[in-house]
Amino acid sequence: MFKGILIEKDEAGYRAAIKSIDEADLPDGEVTVRVSHSTLNYKDGLAITGKGPVVRRFPMVPGIDLVGTVESSVHPEFAVGDPVLLNGWGVGEGHWGGLAQKARLKGDWLVPLPKQFSPQQAMAIGTAGYTAMLCILALERHGITPAHGEILVSGAAGGVGSVATAVLAKLGYTVVAVSGRSEEHDYIKRLGASEVLQRSEFSAPGKPLAKERWAGAVDVVGSHTLANICAGTRYRGVVTACGLAGGMDFPATVAPFILRGVTLAGIDSVMCPRADRLEAWRRLGTDLDIAKLDMISSEISLEEAIRAATKLINGEIRGRIIVDVNR
Ligand code: NDP
């Protein structure tokens, strides 16, 4: 038996609770992992609270990220004792995930734990941090360098936003952050932002085109915020869109794209090919300041994760949360 969060949905309703789970109930997979840590991402918050249709099968162990050691393996790339990491691939949505002491997974989903990071640090980064890096790689791929000008980061006090701000600043970009929490402005500046703007400047409907300011952007909010960011992006600038914290809609016009040659780059971490994941983790190893990672993250127990999920969805969590599944 092992301990984990189990989400159930039946006549009694939708609920998440800590349960003792039989190992025989683990799903099929080539590699069984003894999980040491997981994390809470926005998607885990939606799954645990039931506030969004994330879970596709019940009962479900949530947790889209995990780190641990291989306990048994029939996959040629992984042997007993190997430290491994998993992000996404529908784990915690359609396949039992990381918020438990054990997981059984497809070997192709796993990546070796990068040597630069402890298990806790890898989870402090998690899907949020790896997605932030995917956004920055997309900006680079489209030719945006620090010399091009300011990069806007929305939801800057959250997981993706915190890591994006820290990495962009270390790479020499001028980061202008957007946050709805004035009490976190100092924190965001310590991560490396040169200026922090109020969320309200972006969240209301705006004009099709605004004054050209941003060379690039990392947006986690969507809706009017994404539309306003595109409207204020400079000629041939690049906006990376990865989130919907403000809404799934995109009430924009084509003006920024056809008149200013703005590129809107969609970012998906879940099904992202393995080569791109390995590159993102390699770059996190060189371009993320570990000292800032300590500032970004805090650690909680498996029990505490259920309550923290509600706070996360309410936008009350700063940075990243590591979950020690064994305490
Ligand atoms: P967090 O909850 O850690 O951060 C989200 C931040 O967005 C909040 O901290 C807050 O920042 C801001 N925010 C929250 N609600 C609103 C709102 N109504 N309007 C405007 N801003 C808001 O989540 P993550 O950083 O983990 O994820 C951010 C988004 O990215 C989520 O939508 C998530 O689903 C998505 N995502 C997508 C991935 C992909 O593969 N495409 C992978 C990972 C995440 P502040 O207080 O500073 O304003």
Architecture overview:
50% of the residues are buried. This protein has two domains: 2-113 and 293-324, Quinone Oxidoreductase, Chain A, domain 1, CATH 3.90.180.10; 127-266, NAD(P)-binding Rossmann-like Domain (Rossmann fold, 3-Layer(aba) Sandwich), CATH 3.40.50.720. β1 (2-10) and β2 (13-21) form a beta hairpin. The radius of gyration is 20 Å and the shape is globular. With 327 residues, the protein is an alpha/beta fold. The longest helix has 23 residues, at 119-141. The strands form three sheets. Strands 3, 4, 5, 6, 7, 14 and 15 form a seven-stranded mixed beta sheet that branches. It contains ten helices and 15 strands. It has helices at 42-49, 119-141, 159-170, 185-191, 200-203, 223-231, 255-259, 274-287, 290-296, 302-313; strands at 2-10, 13-21, 31-40, 65-73, 83-87, 102-105, 111-112, 151-153, 175-179, 195-198, 214-219, 233-241, 263-266, 297-301, 320-324. α1 (42-49) packs across α10 and α2 (119-141) packs across α8. The chain binds NADPH dihydro-nicotinamide-adenine-dinucleotide phosphate. NADPH dihydro-nicotinamide-adenine-dinucleotide phosphate (NDP) binds at residues 41-43, 127-128, 131, 155-161, 179-181, 199, 203, 220-221, 225, 242-246, 267-270, 312, 315, 317. NADPH dihydro-nicotinamide-adenine-dinucleotide phosphate (NDP) binds next to α1, α2 and α3.
